[in-house]
Design brief:
homotetramer, alpha/beta, Aspartate Aminotransferase, domain 2, Aspartate Aminotransferase, domain 1, 2 domains, 7-stranded mixed beta sheet, 3-stranded antiparallel beta sheet, globular
């Protein structure tokens, strides 16, 4: 029973069907009918004009976003535990041609406005220091916490006052919105976000994330950067098809709710073992080595996060029975 | 009737089936059972130990190959008409961090050993000039010509004597091998090729090319570069599945033969209009503006290559009727 | 007797004196009194507001100029024989993070407006090709020819119409102006040039070139790039002192005239041996191996440019006697 | 009275004389007689074969060193307060093409072996994380502390066991050696250092640092990188002359001792105001705003390091009277 990563999950049936349906002859790259529908579909979803590009991975989406906001001699403020800092093998530095990441603090991988202001204040305004050009946050965070619209807006205001771009890594944006119950707009552009990496792959997609520019002018250069990075897939219609299928009838929200609900049930069972509140589909538990071994012996697969800590992720398609079994097993530890 | 590009073609049924069959839970990235079969499958095909990585586009595959062979302060010798020079928006420069491309000449986008030797001889061995580190050829070429094993070996010998790496852009490698009727080994590692971008997407795949290292030690750093470029797909099993399906029963060769055969029939109809011999699945024809318009009026879609020239590409799944119709139309011009 | 390169020449006395005079305690980097005079001094010289930075080498000056004009996914149009293409080991690619150089043709390393227009016309306006962002010319050229104000203006107009930046590599700008007898403004900003690498080192300086931005807003980011490249010297006052000494009383022009005059006398002696007209301080001669050996036997040092060709460069301080001797030796061949 | 930075100090007379003496015609770049003496001179000084290159700034020297040790997808371990992290505007990221800096802790900007081991242990050995490739320390540190040979050797052993390169930023290496009274070898290659940025500019030079490769094979590619960065000065003999003058009769040590001695006298006066022990030529004092203003009112110029802190640097040529005056002023606060 896999609770290791939502990356391991299956692709959801509607996406598989859409891929099959896209298997016709059409214009290559992103000139096909499906790709050309993306701008409109996301503009509808967000209630504002956006430019939307499919991207084959979250790492590439994040890095293209940062390259759109930060010059090579600039810097991006992010959390010390951010995916872009720790899990992308320097992809942001590759795409930005060497911009620096300035690392902030905060519980559960969340930045806050005061902390970011303080960090920004510590950077001398002279040529000896890379100057901050963007702020990047992850929503839901790497520890499964969710920024509220107000929290995002406070950070957005800090960014705006300093003239910085604002990026949201939304690898689990669906889980965040499902938790918040708000309009997608409220936690993005209305709160100052310029670019969103909108994740679909962990949530039932196959190989398509969406990169959403709330300042559509930023997309033009990004189209060249995408090609130059080898991310302009020649049969891009299959990427567009996945995303459109996920948007249809708000499947993305339904899938995320399913995963969040499963995580909430596990959280209830875990009680005081929880290291962080569970707001999305990830749990971080205190378990000693013997307990971890006991869970594994019962067939549960998960990630050892550090000494005495375990990460468990609930996928969109996690069977109820697996969740029940794990909840019982945790409660019985 | 599309003769515009094999990138527009559909994905072949065996690949679609393999993708569907891969839709189970498995380890993320390239830790899954299918991805782990690639090294073996290609080692069998080539009759030597290779390291094989799936890559979502030919541009990325080529660029990762060049980055493995050439330092930022080095240079790659390629043909003036090479895809890596003209059609990848500087991707080789991005991945190599600014290596230069030194451009050679030759009919039909083919380099030859004498020309490359001469070009190499013109580079001073001092720090003021980027020093050549690799040779890259495209087989079949951008004009649909095929390098024979002897031609490749002669270039490989030039590269070996100068201590250069040797890369083959095989976006249409299948069409080349289908034309040659030789073992894949004969035109690659036995002729000195170090790294091959083995294309599947134009030939019936969806989003998976294979990057084949005949010097498997070169693959280690490439795995980091692939991640850093955002090309380590989180559900990589779907990429591996496509490639394995194409290798199964030599489907890749069958598809390429079908495309080559179609092109041969068109070539026979075109006769003296041919600008280059037709050895793979591409034709370049002399047609004036009125003739081009006439063909389009009959429903044929193709690429205006330059004044008075047209490029037509036959896909693996091009219906016989379309080929017959086009052959007749060309003959009737 | 050195006719190998003006890089070998001595530093002129006024520059040595200025360096000695600068040896007082002052603010580090470019905050000193001398560095702060540069903007004004060059604004006076050019009759327009400019931003001026000292740079320790022509290669760095050129590369910083190109980085100011061209994004990583863009391209720079230059001549096939340009220094930035052939003699800087990929420095433009390093500083621009991988922009491409598109190579034009023309006698004596001179581009012309028609040729550049044609080259630009051959670039498809799509994401598969690096899009031209700048034109770069060398004045005087690598073959010692001088662009006139009209020729520069014609190229500037081509650049302007396409929205490209326009850079002049003026490693021997002084020699060009000395030849033209025009105002420095006439052959630069009045002819559309945005950035000039104004060379002093070959002309009697020690380690200071000036990078002149005729669009001063371009200088801001360049200050960061200069630091990031390790080119913000900590005792920059010694660089500024050299440049100010060269500007004082138009020493830069006097030195260049001396060199040009020497070259003109050699040219008169060389007559039909000249491969290119001699307009600055370089000569390219047809000499066979025996003739070259004979010159060397008489103590003349120069560069074998290719089979049967020699390059001779006259320095600002070349003794009259050496020039007389060489003129006689050439005439006697 | 300047205690702001040793970068503001004058150039020492022996260096000025050497520059004047070098003003003859010689081969350009580093082919001149003086540049060719560097390898030998430093091999003698260090008692082992080294390759030595002049570099016009410490930032460039450090960055070239790191680029020699770390691939673009790698990482460099350094202290959170390291110059390469905070004061070079991302130069290490520029030269390494985006390698990451992993930041360690330690009093007075000193790393220790246990801390580095722990940091290295926290990096997962998989492609999602940039893998450490080098350790970089600054000696004397940014806070004026000096690593002993044993401390360096312990770090060198950590690096060696993990297969990492080891770089020492020696912008104030002379001050460190003057403090230690040891052989230069003892605190460098004998302690595992692979590359040393040996600073001369703060210590009486004008525009020449030396980059010392204790593994001379690493220098070959660096020569190309130096050119590519525009740091191969065309009249390099003036850089070599400075360094040779500083080595002559151990002038570098004499200058550093003078600066250290001055700092020691100030330290005695400062007593409990010292934030760090004074081992080289820098002092960090606790002074409140009124005290800082009082010192400035008496004509002392220095750097406000943070709230309630001041940095004072003693230069090689600081007049005794200035030191006496400042010592008295500090004591009288």
């Amino acid at each position: 029973m896999r609770f290791f990563s939502d990356n391991s999950a299956a692709v959801c049936p509607a996406v598989m069907d859409a891929i099959a349906a896209a298997n016709t002859v059409d214009t290559a790259y992103d000139g096909d009918a499906l790709s050309r529908r993306l701008d409109g579909a996301f503009s509808d979803l967000f209630g504002t004009d956006v430019a939307a590009l499919w991207i084959a991975s979250g790492t590439a989406a994040n890095s293209l976003a940062l390259a759109a906001l930060c010059p090579p001699h600039g810097a991006v403020v992010c959390h010390r535990d951010a995916h872009i800092q720790n899990d992308e093998c320097g992809a942001p530095e590759f795409y930005t041609h060497g911009a620096k990441l300035f690392l902030g603090e905060g519980e559960g991988a969340k930045l806050d406005a005061a902390g970011v202001s303080h960090l920004l204040g510590s950077i001398r305004d002279d040529v000896h220091q890379a100057q901050p050009a963007a702020v990047s946050i992850t929503n839901a965070t790497e520890y499964g916490l969710v920024y509220t619209p107000d929290e995002v807006a406070a950070l957005g205001e800090v960014a705006r006052r300093r003239g910085l771009g604002f990026h949201m890594d939304g690898a689990r944006f669906a889980n965040a919105v499902a938790h918040l119950g708000c309009a997608p707009a409220a936690v993005t552009w209305q709160a100052g976000v310029d670019v969103l990496s909108f994740g679909f792959i962990k949530n039932g997609g196959m190989f398509a994330e969406a990169l959403i520019f709330f300042r559509p002018d930023l997309a033009a250069a990004t189209r060249y950067r995408r090609k130059r990075a080898g991310h302009l897939l020649s049969k891009g219609r299959f990427a567009a098809a996945q995303i459109l299928a996920m948007l249809e009838g708000d499947l993305w929200l339904a899938n995320a709710r399913a995963a969040n609900d499963g995580a909430a049930r596990l959280a209830a069972a875990a009680g005081p073992r929880l290291i962080h509140p569970v707001e999305a589909n990830e749990l971080f538990l205190r378990v000693d080595a013997a307990e971890a071994a006991a869970l594994r012996a019962q067939g549960f697969d998960f990630y050892d996060w550090g000494p005495g800590e375990a990460r468990l992720v609930v996928s969109w398609d996690q069977p109820e029975a697996e969740i029940d079994a794990l909840a019982s097993a945790i409660a019985a530890l």
